[in-house]
Amino acid sequence: MLHTAALNLQILGLSVLTEVPNPGGGVAPPGSEGLLKILQWAAWIALALGVLGVIIAGITMMIQVRRGEGGEGLAKLGWTLAGCVVVAGASGLVTAFV
Predict the structure, then answer these.
(1) Which of 2, 4, 44, 54 has its CA 20 to 30 A from that of 75?
(2) pTM (2 decimals)?
(3) Are residues 75 and 49 in contact, defined by beta-carbon separation less than 8 angstroms?
């Protein structure tokens, strides 16, 4: 009996969730071309800095291997690549939450 009540509650919850209106992608307001251009520039600059960061992390790793500290450079490379993933997927991440 309790199992049936829980199942009915889940079905009711799903029906409520399916009735939530979807606002859709929307349309950019007039005059938003400038903002979109700034966002494109910011993404380009961030990814260019990400490439520079990977190069610097690689150089740092080459120097640190000589001194026996190679593992620290690997962590820097990992964080740099993680930042690049966030920048590259920023639009998708925001769209997933909206």
Answers:
(1) 44
(2) 0.60
(3) no
- Please choose, from the candidates 91, 66, 65, the residue with its C-alpha nearest in 3D space to the C-alpha of residue 77: 65
Q: What DSSP string describes 34-55?
A: HHHHHHHHHHHHHHHHHHHHHH
Helices (H) and strands (E) in the chain, counts: 4, 0
Note whether 53 and 23 are within 8 A (CB).
Answer: no
Rounded average pLDDT over 33-61: 88
| Helix axes 70-88 and 33-67, enclosed angle (nearest 10) | 170
Assess contact for 81 and 54: CB atoms under 8 A. Answer: yes
